[in-house]
């Protein structure tokens, strides 16, 4: 199953999300995805992807939940995922209401993906504590599970509390939508194995053999943690994000997708944020990749 990131960042944020999603689905896209950037600090403490800077594209960012809602209203079959929402930024009750609404509107197509974030400046702006981000993710996941599977709902935790309350709005998919987690560190990958329904790994294009070697190494940590928790590793699904770098060619991205499928990762989505500009060029790549 091949999907695509929705136009959300940089110049693409000014494109017609509805036209992109409806056209791409008609061409055969099977999933659409959003990311989560709050702001682009002028003097970042931590840069993007191991660099010391923040890409210009992140200076303009559409809200991920609004973008998913737009896609939900103009499509009928494609899955709607987040890779990832930075969990500690969000009050869980409000987030659950938004996500559940998207799931209901879309007829049960939501694939919620979460991560812990990395930018100190974004955490400062969001009023969240960077040092507690792992614990906040765990607590948010506990609350989402309670809100989606029980009624009445109650929670008493380190950061958030919910008095016993009726919450009748539940997701279409039962008992709840599958929860995906993005992770690269051993601790994060262990969390995937212990409690997630799916993993959101990332590869870069142009790429070399190290992409698959890295995936294999990371997946081994997930599988070991799953077995230790009494879970079946095979039940933890993977959706691979294929980041196309500036200057990438369609053929390079298509080859990466083929290699992933041949290596046991048939489900992927392509992010063209850095590779192309403008909705028409985006859709041209979509058509060529789906035709291949």
Plain-language structure description:
This protein has a seven-stranded parallel sheet. Strands 4-6-9-10-12 form a five-stranded parallel sheet. Helices cover 40% and strands 16% of the residues. The protein has nine helices and 14 strands. Strand 13 (240-244), helix 8 (250-262) and strand 14 form a beta-alpha-beta unit. The model has no long low-confidence stretch (mean pLDDT 96). The two termini are 13 Å apart. The chain has a single domain (2-291), classed as TIM Barrel (Alpha-Beta Barrel). The chain is an alpha/beta fold and 292 residues long. Residues 13-259 form the Luciferase-like domain. This is TIGR03619 family F420-dependent LLM class oxidoreductase. Keywords: Flavoprotein, FMN, Monooxygenase, Oxidoreductase. It comes from Nocardia xishanensis. One of its GO terms (molecular function) is oxidoreductase activity.
What is this structure's SSE topology?
Elements lengths: L1 E4 L11 H11 L3 E4 L29 H11 L4 E4 L2 E2 L5 H15 L3 E2 L1 E3 L4 H7 L6 H17 L3 E4 L4 E5 L14 E2 L4 H10 L2 E2 L2 E4 L4 H19 L8 E2 L1 E5 L5 H13 L5 E4 L7 H13 L1
Helix pairs in contact: 1-2, 1-9, 2-3, 3-5, 6-7
What are its keywords?
292 residues, 7-stranded parallel β-sheet, 5-stranded parallel β-sheet, 9 helices, 14 strands, globular, flavoprotein, TIGR03619 family F420-dependent LLM class oxidoreductase, Luciferase-like_sf
Biggest β-sheet, characterized? 7 strands, parallel
Q: Tell me the domain tally.
A: 1
**Widest beta sheet: strand line-up:** 5-3-2-1-14-13-11
Q: How many distinct helices?
A: 9
Distance between the termini: 13 Å
The CATH fourth-level homologous superfamily: Luciferase-like domain
Report the top-level CATH class.
Answer: Alpha Beta
Could you give the order of the helices and strands? EHEHEEHEEHHEEEHEEHEEHEH
> In the CATH hierarchy, what is the architecture at level 2?
Alpha-Beta Barrel
Q: Identify low-pLDDT runs.
A: none
Number of strands: 14
